[in-house]
Design goal:
- By secondary structure, this protein is mainly alpha-helical.
- It has one domain: 434 Repressor (Amino-terminal Domain) (Orthogonal Bundle), CATH 1.10.260.
- The chain contains five helices and two strands.
- It has a two-stranded antiparallel ribbon with strand order 1-2.
Length: 70
């Protein structure tokens, strides 16, 4: 499973979805899907914009967690 830490990054900076959408130029729905961890896929450009905005690495934004069944 892939865990998205967008909500944590936003919470640390006290940002709203609309703030991140406006500053990154990403659609609010994209931000919402990542925030709620319901996105099925993410465009590389979106990842790049978020990393640039938060000044972070991809591994700060996403984390791979192996399934417990494996």
């Amino acid at each position: 499973m892939i865990k998205c830490h967008l909500s944590t990054l936003m919470g640390e900076r006290k940002l709203k979805l609309v703030d991140v959408a406006r500053e990154t130029g990403l659609h609010r729905n994209t931000i919402t899907l990542l925030y709620d961890e319901t996105a099925a896929r993410v465009d590389l450009d979106a990842i790049s914009r978020l990393c640039k905005f938060f000044d972070c690495k991809v591994e700060d934004l996403f984390e791979y967690i192996p399934d417990a069944s494996n």
